[in-house]
Amino acid sequence: MNTPLDDQGGPLSGLRILELGHFIAAPFCTRVLADLGADVIKVEPPGRGDPVRSWGIIPEGETASVWWSVHGRNKRSITADLKKPEGIALVKRLIAEVDAVVENFKPGQLASWGLGPRDMTAVNPDVIVVQVSGYGQTGPGHNRAAFGVIGEAVGGLRHLTGYPPEVSELPPVRTGISIGDSVAGLYGAIGLLAALFEKGKGRGTPGRRIDVALTESILSLLEGCLPEYGATGAVRQPTGSTLPTNAPSNAYPTADGRWFLIAANSNALFRRLCGAMGRPELADDPRYADNPSRVKHAAELDAAISHWTTGLTLDEVAAQVEAADVPCSRIYDIADIAADPQFLDRGMVRRVADPRLGEVLHPGVVPAMTGGPAGGVRWAGPDVGAHTDEVLAELLGMAPDEIDALKKEGVL
């Protein structure tokens, strides 16, 4: 678990990205790419930086949250005031030196400042531009404001999270994180890598733009919901802790007041579960002969499984179901994750030295890769503008007195 900062490169070493992002979606996209070795240069407003620096728990005496340690990791932070002509001019010079730009401003905002995709390709015809927004860059609703939670609502996910109306009148629940932003960020990374592959094959299109919408990113996750509606008119409804497509797959109560997840939704798995329960006859019951039959009679089946689990503690249920090699688990909280031997062995829980906070726990890099440098955590989220002098000197050849003059003018 005591993993030092990993200063080796990764498969994306040599890729340089300029991040004109704030809050979550674009910064998450670039963090994924930076973890894999890309050189991400994050442009932040002078002084305050990205607003997300103030999100989450902020230790006493600090001005940035613990989350920032992860959210900004592996990136170089520079400052530039995009509301000043000098700041725009500086960023255009940087665009000429990078492979891609990732942004998530409201559609048209950067263009109004002179930093739209056409302005970018004017200074760098080969630059790939990734744009993440609520509804996309086109269409009648493209200029509507949105955050991840709006993408989750419009994309159909929020409708499915919760219990049926007859069970609870509470509103559909959130997932507990801004999953809409993160999913859109991942699609942004996929789009950027696809464009790079295209370019590497000599088929690159000058001015290639990647247009990612929060709403569409979530919609793409909804499995069979859309084709089912198109074919039958059926509107999938929330089903609590179950899914309407397979059974048994649910959270079951235990004698010590806890919940245990069991997913025995193939015929072979179901038969093994029945053996673990001491109810082998259930596997031969016509009501449970195959998955469609089990789904049809899921309520009765869940009642039978719950009757068994409520007579045992969580540990006792776990021992018997695991021995039967049926997918199962207690529900982890973050403390469970931090102590989990599997996560620890694979480096998914890492101790990282943060200059502000001391030792901080970070999630590892996904995906794990073999056969060469796989990326890693090279440094924690930096202070606002920590790399301004370094980047401007390295990429633009600016002298210290030039940089200092821009700082005095409030440009940096």
UniProtKB/TrEMBL annotation:
Any coiled-coil regions, as ranges: none
Entry annotated with the keyword NAD: no
UniProt-listed InterPro entries: CoA-transferase_III_domain (IPR050483), CoA-Trfase_fam_III (IPR003673), CoA-Trfase_III_dom3_sf (IPR044855), CoA-Trfase_III_dom_1_sf (IPR023606)
Pfam family, one: CoA_transf_3
Keywords of this entry: Transferase
A molecular function (GO) term: CoA-transferase activity
Classification via Gene3D superfamilies: Crotonobetainyl-coa:carnitine coa-transferase, domain 1, formyl-coa transferase, domain 3
Highest taxon listed in the record's lineage: Bacteria
Name of the protein described by the UniProt record: Formyl-CoA transferase
Biological source species: Thalassobaculum litoreum DSM 18839
